[in-house]
Structures are given as structure tokens and as C-alpha cells.
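Limitations
The C-alpha cells in this dataset are predictions for the assembled complex, not deposited experimental models. Users should treat interface geometry with appropriate caution, especially where small molecules or nucleic acid strands are included. An illustrative entry is reproduced here so readers can see what is and is not provided.
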Amino acid sequence: LERPEVTEPAIRLYPLRGIPEIVPGDDLAAHLLESAQRDEIALSNGALLVCQKVVSKAEGRVLRLADIEPGPEAMRIAAEDDKDPRQVEVVLRETARIVRRGHRVLISQTHHGFVCANAGVDLSNAHEEDGAVLLPVDPDASAARLRRALIDAGAGPLAVIVTDTFGRPWREGLVDVAIGSAGIEPISDLAGVPDLAGRELVVTATATADQLAAAAGLLMRKDSGIPAVWIEGVSVDGDGSIRETLRDPETDLFR
Amino acid sequence: LERPEVTEPAIRLYPLRGIPEIVPGDDLAAHLLESAQRDEIALSNGALLVCQKVVSKAEGRVLRLADIEPGPEAMRIAAEDDKDPRQVEVVLRETARIVRRGHRVLISQTHHGFVCANAGVDLSNAHEEDGAVLLPVDPDASAARLRRALIDAGAGPLAVIVTDTFGRPWREGLVDVAIGSAGIEPISDLAGVPDLAGRELVVTATATADQLAAAAGLLMRKDSGIPAVWIEGVSVDGDGSIRETLRDPETDLFR
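Predicted assembly:
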């Protein structure tokens, strides 16, 4: 007796398990594929969400603080905020503009245009005791390379989204957001589509890539050892850059 | 032959379909239950995400603009921003503090403490041509009442989360966030838990309720007619208020 189709979940999330600690030069696509095959997850018709940490590590975006020589601005900020000046130096190198500083928190706009704490530099889960993991140089390109490697190995159609964990103004707690994408439109624009009462919806662009990232974040918690999540039940059309999600400074009320 | 357990999705999302247009006084819990039963979805061991619009409508938080008399401040802002003064008046009544105003956008802090555009007042999907839907007076209480009614009808254990669709600074596109919760801790605090390298994770509070809301948002798009989503595969311990997600103004760098 078959279960009625209506009880099938519309969206399904699968954690990719058993992926070892990634080190610079590792073939991340091969690790992702191997994990999926082991658990009989077909990477077809869905979105693969991969946390920035493993992407950055595979790409060698890792520094040792022992190798960092802090400059005067890093020394000054570190003294004011009681921080490791080498750590501050790394953050400043990744920072295009300091957006806010206070309460020992430094909110940066990165060279990519993301606004987040410490320019996305992460000291936890860096494996090495004094290691720092930086964001990928071009997370869209990272997503595209991973997607290409997976498709070449027989996977797909699929989207690949690189995620990171950001804080928000006004709200406590971190959420996962998309910092790179390939094979999907990160924003689903409903402008001009009528609502259920037949009126035109004016401003209804949904940040689909960010909603997918947040969903995946339910399984990618820092203590879980799950660096990637496969999501089925979402359409993976288009191929937009995550830069589409960066607000034009001209209309940004929170510069 | 049984499918191996490993291929079962860890998190599963089910849209609650066929819920009619809700009007003031409707028994929303009964509609949710009926929809779940029709699709053989057992509301047990999971989280029920319900969009604010149907909660507000059932609670009668609906106004007709024809009944609104705009005051001087609403008249002034409406003239400056080329808006309907009655619409601005409704927004101002729901506003505790104007956070930013510019580019015809008004960002408010609501009386609950949420920071969002137009104090959460919604003119789309309001059914009536000149209707406005306000946020619930106390969304935590709304979630708790719904949860109680569902448990009394035999559902549960479950969490209920009321969601709304908010914009963000710096990033385009809307995401769904939690504005009320019952039967779950909205923030999962990992402070003190060791990371995989054995170091203590210092700041790792995850906004679980917001991640669930964003996941549900993948199915609750404004043109979909899906006002509620059932999510399985998440633990539903605790019973925290969504006020825990509101950042203390003392440490808020974006007042």
C-alpha cells in the first residue's frame, strides 16, 4: 500500500555527514559527493548549501596569527577593546569600511560588500589553535566551481549556495545567510504578481537564497560537524550572483 | 524492501493547504487542524509556523482606511512621501519610535519592540480593497493560545511560531522572521559548548525560531495561499518568549 502523495514533505533537508576536517588543497566536491553517495542522497534537483568554513579552508583562506604583524590601527583598536592585535589586524585587512564599533564589537563592510561582525573572520573551528579562517575571495566563484565539479561528476541539476552565520541589528541570535550562489536566483522577485485578492504586489522580493541558508542552518550548527546540507523541493532556475542581495548604498538607511 | 533509514530527510516541511480566507472571529486552530488532517499530517513532534496575517485577521486586527482620521504628523509625512495619509496614520499608531525615514520608506520600532518597515502594517492580502492588517497585540500570547487549542484538540507535542516577513538593512529581499513563539526556545544558546577542535564557543547563540521562520517562508510566499507550514525534525523543548530575540538597546549599535 503506497502512502498518499499528499503526506510527502514538500521540502526535505538532508545533512551531509561524515565529512572529515577539511585542510587547504582538499577536493571539497569529492568529499561532498562521497558523503552524499554513502547516505544514498542523489544530488539532483535541489540546492546544496555549504558552509563558508569548509569552502575557505579548502581554498587555503586560513592564516596563522603567529605570522601576522599588527599595524598601528590594529594596535590602537586592540588596546581600546582588550583584544589580540593580530586578530584585529586580520579583520582590518578584510574590511573595506568600518560600519560601527562599540561594546567590543566591530561591524565591517567586507571588500565583497557584506556587512557583518569582524569582516567574517572566524577564530572558532579553525582547527589550528591560533588559526583564523577568512571568507572566500569570491564566494560566487567558489559556488560556481563547486557546482561545476559536482555536475562534471554526474550530479545535478543543482544550485550551490555558500553560507555564513551573521548577526543582525536589533535581534539577538545568529542566522545563516547566503554569501555566494550558483545555479539559482538568490532573490525571487514577485513585483507585479497579483496577490490573492487580485491586487498587484508591489514590493515582494523574497531572499530565497537567504531563506535556504537559514533552513540549512538548522542542521549546520557549530557543534554538529555538519558542513553541508542538501535541500530538495525548491526550484533551482536561473544563475544570479549574490551581489544582487547587496543593497544599493544610495537607498541604504543604515550606512 | 525498506529504504535505509539514512535516506530519510532530517528536516521535513509540509505546507498546510486549503485554508480558506480567514476573517475576524474565525477559529484558526480548527482550520489548521482540518487542513493537517485532510493531508494526513500528524501535528506531533514538530513546529507549526503560522503567518502573522491569518493570526491577525482571526484576532480582528484589521482596519478599514475609510474609518481612519489622519492626524497632523501623518498628513505631513504623507505629503512629503506622496502616500495615503490614512495609511501613514495607521503606521504611526503602531509605532513606538521612528528608527529611520527616507526614500519613501518608514522604519519603525513597534510597541512590541520589533524594528521593521511600516510597523508591520500590511496593505497587501488584506482582502478588503481599503483594508490594513496590523500585527497581533501580543504575538507570544497568540502563539500560546493557538498551541493550547491544538493540544486540547489532541495535537502535540508541538511548538507554535507566528511569523512575519521583514526586510533587512544592507541586504535586498525579504525574509520571514519569528514574532511570537510558544513551546520552544527561540534562541539556542551554545555559549560554553566546545567546538570540534575542543575550544569553547563563546558567542554562538543561534536564532532557531528565525531559522524555522525563514525555512517556512520558502513555502509561505505571498502568491502561494499557504498561511502555515508544519516542520518536523527539530526539537521543541522549552517555552521562551520572542522578546528574548530583541536586542538590548544598551548594546544596539544601530538605534
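Some entries come with short summary sentences. For this one: The radius of gyration of chain B is 20 Å.
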